[in-house]
Amino acid sequence: MTETLDVALIVNPTAGKGRAAKVVANVAGRIREAGANVSILIGRDAVDAVNLAKKAVADGVSAVVALGGDGMAHLALQAVAGTTTPLGIIPAGTGNDLANTLKLPTKDPVAAAGVLADKLVSGGARPMDAIRVGDKWFGCVTGCGFDSRVNDRANRLTWPKGRMRYNLAILAELRVFKPLPFRITFDDEEPWEVEAMLVAIGNAKSYGAGMMVLPDAEVDDGLLDVQVLAAVSKTEFLKTFPKVFKGAHVTHPAVTIRRATVVTVESPGVTAYADGEYLADLPITCECVAGAVQILA
After folding, report:
1. What domains lie within the chain, and their CATH numbers?
2. How far apart are CA 296 and CA 176, in angstroms?
3. At a CB cut-off of 8 Å and minimum separation 6, what does 68 contact?
4. Which of 199, 264, 252, 189 lies closest to 226 in space, CA to CA?
5. Distance between CA 89 and CA 53 in Å, rounded?
6. Averaged over 26-45, what is the pLDDT?
7. Does residue 230 contact residue 197 with C-beta atoms inside 8 Å?
């Protein structure tokens, strides 16, 4: 007898300026074509979405599938990390950085649904690392320093909407930002104290809609990639920043790239954001948990 496949499709209908809502029927239909039952779940808010995903895992679904951007993948990750329930990602957001790292189709959600459906039917999920911070998980990159200050500022703005709000926050933060004192501990080494513009810790290559901050990161090597951009002038920062979209910034003398299994980052009054979502106030300890997720990609 063929095993019944039950899929929980967690949807952020506002992702990609409503793109996810427009494609949900076709996406669900493509998964059903593979012989799976699909339940469409829409949370009232982020907490409700995570709770729905966790209940689906507890009920024994065959897979949890996130339809949306990196934020929705992040929410689904909270439910599946550390379990045997596979995670599928159907990119329909603005950034789709984790999907890009996994080489999923980012322009065609139905094609992405086909990839995960085929993997699900064939039992082809593969292990992916995830990063644990306390009782939270993330799959892409966490940033603290300039980028988290920009996020803090953008979250305080009520206008404009969308990407322009973030761009305005960048300009406003550039006017006042000064290098921050960080204390970073890699595994069991002595702490490194450094004045830096930002610290990025990741499992994937990019964040922020294509910024290749960690171009050599691999999602299944059991290691965290860490980038530290030491203190530079604002002129030098502005000159170097565009290079991040091609990963060419890593040759700059102020950039240090390290790898470790556990990394602790400390800096007073600094926040951290992961996968585009608020993670925690520093200090944080990030631990790479090898194979924490079974990914349908």
Report:
1. 5-124 (3.40.50.10330), 138-290 (2.60.200.40)
2. 43
3. 10, 11, 12, 15, 16, 20, 90, 92, 93
4. 199
5. 13
6. 93
7. yes
CA distance 204 to 231: 24
Query: How, if at all, do strands 271-274 and 277-281 pair?
Result: antiparallel
d(Cα 10, Cα 249) in Å, to the nearest integer? 36
pLDDT tens-place string over residues 183-234: 999 999 999 999 999 999 999 999 988 899 999 999 999 999 999 999 999 9
Is the pTM value of this prediction over 0.85? Answer: yes
Reported confidence tier of residue 1, pLDDT bands at 50, 70, 90: very low
As a whole number of angstroms, the distance between CA 272 and CA 109 comes to: 30
Cα 272 to Cα 142: distance, rounded to the nearest angstrom: 6
Count of beta carbons in the 10 Å neighbourhood of residue 195: 12
Q: Cβ-count burial of 280 within 10 angstroms (0-12 exposed, 13-18 middle, 19+ buried)?
A: middle
Mean pLDDT comparison of 2-6, 76-80, 105-109, highest-scoring range = 76-80
For residue 45, pLDDT beyond 90: no
Tell me which residue of 6, 4, 46, 60 sits closest to 28, measured CA to CA: 6
Measure the CA–CA gap between 234 and 231, rounded to whole angstroms: 9
Residue 14 to residue 20: CA distance in whole angstroms? 7
* Identity of the residue numbered 118: D
pLDDT at 135 over 70: yes
Helix (H, G, I), strand (E, B) or coil at 236: helix
